[in-house]
Amino acid sequence: MRHLLDFEGWSRADLESVLDTARVMREVLERPVKKVPALQGFTVATVFFEPSTRTRTSFELAARRMSADVVSFAAQSSSLQKGESYKDTLLTLEAMGVDAYVIRADAAGVPHQATRWVKGVVVNGGDGQRAHPTQALLDAYTLLEALGSLEGKKIAIVGDILHSRVARSGAELFSLLGAEVWCAGPPSLLPQSLPGARLTPSLEEALEEADAVMALRLQKERMEAGLINLEDYIARYQITERRLGLAKPQAPLLHPGPMNRDVELEGTLADSPRSLVNRQVQNGVAVRMAVLYHLLVGRER
Amino acid sequence: MRFKAELMNAEEMRRALYRIAHEIVEANKGVEGLALVGIHTRGIPLAKRLSRFIQEFEGQEVPVGILDITLYRDDLSEIGHRPQVRETRIPFDLTNRAIVLVDDVLYTGRTARAALDALMDLGRPRRIYLAVLVDRGHRELPIRADFVGKNVPTAKNEVVKVKVAEVDGEDRVELWEKEEA
Amino acid sequence: MILIKNVNLVDAKGVRGPADVLVGEGRILSLEGGEASLVVDGSGKLLAPGFLDLHAHLREPGEEVKEDLASGLLAAVRGGYTDVVSMPNTRPPVDTPEAVRALKAKALRLGLARLHPGAALTVGQEGERLTQAGGLKEAGAVLLTDDGRTNEDAFILAAGLLQAAPLGLPVAVHAEDASLRRQGVMNDGPLAHRLGLPGNPPEAEAARIARDLEVLRYALRRSKATPRLHVQHLSTRRGVELIREARRAGLPVTAEATPHHLTLTEEALKGFDPIFKVAPPLRAEEDREALLEGLLDGTLTAIATDHAPHTQAEKERDLLRAPFGIPSLEVAFPLLYTELHLKRGFPLPRLVALFTDGPREVLGLRPLHLEEGAEASLVLLDPKEAPVEPARFASKARYSPWAGWVLAGWPVLTLVEGRVVHRVE
Description:
The structure holds 3 protein chains of 3 kinds. Chain A is built from 12 helices and 9 strands. The two termini of chain A are 15 Å apart. In chain A, α6 links the parallel β5 and β6. By secondary structure, chain C is α/β, with parallel strands linked by helices. Chain C has 13 helices and 20 strands. In chain C, the strands form 4 sheets. In chain C, strands 1, 2, 3, 4, 5, 16, 19 and 20 form an 8-stranded mixed beta sheet that branches. Chain C starts with a strand and ends with a strand.
């Protein structure tokens, strides 16, 4: 596959290959010299039209660990305020010799549009409410580390499913890898359908015998828009120690971050050994290294 | 491709490896600080065999690590395909050790160069040796093997295929010729 | 004098010919030939009355970077249009008789397609105070509309209909309920959700049409003169049903459909290209089919382009921020000739009527047919196939959702009152 926009067109074999590579990259990150020369001479640009320090840093670190040169474009500063378009920004970077663009935007489809403008490789760093494939990959990797395989496993995703690109890409990927995905949340925050997932307004139904649980961030914009009442959410959808008892014993807990303590998760759970949140972050760099390797090496130049 | 000749049979391979094992211990003046690192793919079973032989006649275990050099290749931006990255596992500290890199065939020297760079990123060995089953000539870099099973002068349109039982089901070294396109 | 030889004639009355059409003094002098200084070979081609577009955004005054009268009216004649109704949502909006007169004068000087300005229904199109319909009509306005916005206040719409009725001016409406459509950028449905884009539901159109029909009933009841409501760019199955029912009940309502709603669906948005972003949005296949049925059974009597040019840069923004609108003046007829008539057997005279008699009737103009004595505003159409090449458009919007489509029925000669305004050698 030429770009990573979402998982359309990616076979299970391709994806498992990326995850295998991520395993090797994880080992590289344990070395004293956390660097390999594989992408020396390549230039990777992070083009974040929607701000995000964590994801951008994760990608930039991944590129640097592979010895690529990194260029950062972040919207606030910028020419975008002055009316420069996405296209102009990308073409300017292209003129400077960029091979891969990691793009994040608050509108769905911008990475797709980008593939029509630049010759390089495009990685979707999150587009609107539509997709966030590298997050799904690092979540899958973390789950594989904990569970060994996703085949036949029940994964519960809880929270604002409707607006979550993490839930969408997660459902798409985990089901491709053989898991049974359940998405639970308040009815006003559940879509009518979600490819790859079963939807339920019942937290209990989703957690029942789950092999792993992922809690999504609740954004205050949703509360401001009157879609959800905070107390109601906490009362019915917060992941607590007791509710987690419905899942399989030792079922790990994931969260894409940043976490609202005592909203999505009971505060004590966030720090418990079942929480793999830190692993997710570490794995994020390894997975992004693997994605860059897969997209840049072996292409016709 | 067309099969041309058998260069080594199983018995010849065994004898060559046995001799190399002795040469390694001789060069290192014993087993102290010695370790073997096999280069993916066939260097690994060869390294393991060398370790077993050394164990047999020295009575001491020489640790074996495995090294994948894909991320250190110098041709990644030119090749038309993407090689699958494989595991590197060195279960011992490289510092102050005498490392013997083990590979099946030494040709242009680029794999050995990549292996050297990889090892240097993994630690600081005291000394690095290179052991190969077959040296087929045509070096493109100033690299030489310290221990060689067999020197085989070859033409550029020929290919040396090493088969090891652990991977290919039999032990044999073959010479093949590329057909005219 | 111009002679168009050996050409087949098509208008609302049917296809006939071949004929030798002699044009002079702004009229069709004869269908049997005669002496002429310019002789055009019409063999294998079709002659139709010039088209009238009820709905084009020519962007002048105020947004000339996107289009102006010169480029827009040139695009029109290349598309076979001899008459264009311009929308008043310009900057400033066309809401005074002076503004109407200025546009008409400029268009007259250009000598391309004839311009019939649409004027705003309310001052500034703000939806609060009615404009002065009498003065506007006198200045040359042919309809009143707040298109560009939606008519949120039903009472204002009713008052507007009542004011326009004795003047014989139709009120054209962009029928969408703004509170239901919200920030929708494409048709609301499973595809919008899959693509992660906010949806504009078909119910927003249906709800507004239903309301506007009741407003029309109210105005009809309260007025001696007949108020006339024209529903713009119909796009939904439910909308077609409502109009059909209303017309059967004898309500004085007309409706138009656009080339894009007739040839494209929401599937076009899969590539995330804002070229396809338009309001009302491209809908589902069943809506398209319903529009076609409506065209066939007379529920819809006009094709109107809703030509909406923007700069290329604007249409390259993201899908949330790119402006709505699809331009089509230059390709509308060949598009529908190919996709509806050639590919689906849509009867040609009916298709031509939708570009001529139908729109004319909305404005209260008499039909124009190809007969001796008729005004010589004509278009000669070539059935030879050629691809859509936006780079060669006269319109400033040099892009098209149909770029590369191979179409037949291209206008090769356009006459306005006997004057050549477009010719392909």
